[in-house]
Automatic annotation (TrEMBL):
<dbReference type="InterPro" id="IPR016181">
    <property type="entry name" value="Acyl_CoA_acyltransferase"/>
</dbReference>
<dbReference type="InterPro" id="IPR052742">
    <property type="entry name" value="Mito_N-acetyltransferase"/>
</dbReference>
<feature type="domain" description="N-acetyltransferase">
    <location>
        <begin position="1"/>
        <end position="161"/>
    </location>
</feature>
<dbReference type="GO" id="GO:0016747">
    <property type="term" value="F:acyltransferase activity, transferring groups other than amino-acyl groups"/>
</dbReference>
<protein>
    <recommendedName>
        <fullName>N-acetyltransferase domain-containing protein</fullName>
    </recommendedName>
</protein>
<dbReference type="Pfam" id="PF00583">
    <property type="entry name" value="Acetyltransf_1"/>
</dbReference>
<dbReference type="InterPro" id="IPR000182">
    <property type="entry name" value="GNAT_dom"/>
</dbReference>
């Protein structure tokens, strides 16, 4: 079930969140970030954040926010994390599909991912299957902990046509 995230949900997901940022393979977050800093960044700074829960466990989460301000605030940005033990079970897809519905309900017309690490092939395949296109590649944008500098992609999907 996907619900708006609570602090308790985030605290239970914290070991997964911490492992993801420490691995330095997909997210450009400070590996030394505290739980409180992460909660602020992921749950309170964005417009909304959600948790995917099953049997009382938080197995995944996403946030949604405007990608930019003013005349570009009709495009949103989201970030997704899923526990390693449950990857490949469709949770990220459910989170992304949910986020698209939330985006439309909030008045966003498109969704953009600003930095999808090129070596995150599973995520790229999923986003493409869900209709996202790579609209740009930033050379050497991410310093991967094992591979060194790798490219990052900007991915975009039009959700609804904007009205004038």
């Amino acid at each position: 079930m996907i619900t708006e995230i609570t602090r308790e949900d985030f605290v239970s997901f914290w070991p997964t969140f911490k492992a993801i940022i420490v691995s330095q393979t997909t997210y450009a977050f400070d590996a030394n970030m505290s739980l409180d800093e992460a909660y602020q960044l992921w749950c309170t700074a964005p417009l909304k954040a959600f948790a995917y829960k099953l049997n009382g466990q938080t197995l995944g989460t996403y946030y949604i926010k405007a990608n930019a301000m003013g005349p570009s605030n009709h495009i949103c940005n989201c970030g997704y994390m899923v526990s390693e033990a449950t990857r490949g079970q469709g949770i990220a897809q459910q989170l992304c599909e949910h986020s698209q519905q939330v985006a439309k309900s909030l008045g966003f017309t498109a969704m953009q991912f600003n930095s999808v690490v090129s070596t995150n092939e599973g995520a790229i395949r999923l986003w493409q299957r869900l209709g996202y296109k790579i609209i740009g590649t930033i050379p050497n944008a991410y310093k991967h902990s094992k591979l060194g500098y790798v490219d990052s992609h900007i991915m975009h999907k039009q959700l609804i046509e904007p009205s004038s």
